[in-house]
Description:
Distance between the termini: 86 Å
Number of domains: 1
Number of strands: 0
Number of helices: 5
Structural class: mainly alpha
Strand content: under 5%
Largest sheet: none
Amino acid sequence: MADEQQRLREAEAAQWWEWKLASLSAAQEFGGATIKTxxxxxxxxxxxxxxxxxxxxxxxxxxxxxxxDEITYVCLRFIGGLLAAALASGIAYFNxxxxxxxxxxxxxxxxxxxxxxxxxxxxxISRLATPTAWAAVVSSIVSAAAFCWGAWSASSLVVxxxxxx
Length: 165
């Protein structure tokens, strides 16, 4: 009977460990996809704006000198979005490494579970885990906001250039 309970506890520990690893992996993949999307949005918008300005510079070169400051501010918004996405990537990597180091190996967890009550067991997560996770989320939101602000400003700029104002 004791051997059967121990095998059940070990199986429970193994399932918990697999679930935790799958959860961390899914969060990492989702965060990575989000950051890649933000980099592509901001970088692509910057390239598209540069391409549009380059195409129209020959026919409307006189206008660009009067719009130089506005063009600079639009580009800076997209560059800010790129920097915020890069910052989010670095913070997310740091956070993931903190969390990965916080959980015991399956064998340590199995030893703990087979020793008795697991109701009070929690992994020893560093105090930096939660703040760094939120910092990565905030940095991603700032990157998305910079893209939206830059896109709105760029649309106004493109309309002004196209209409010859």
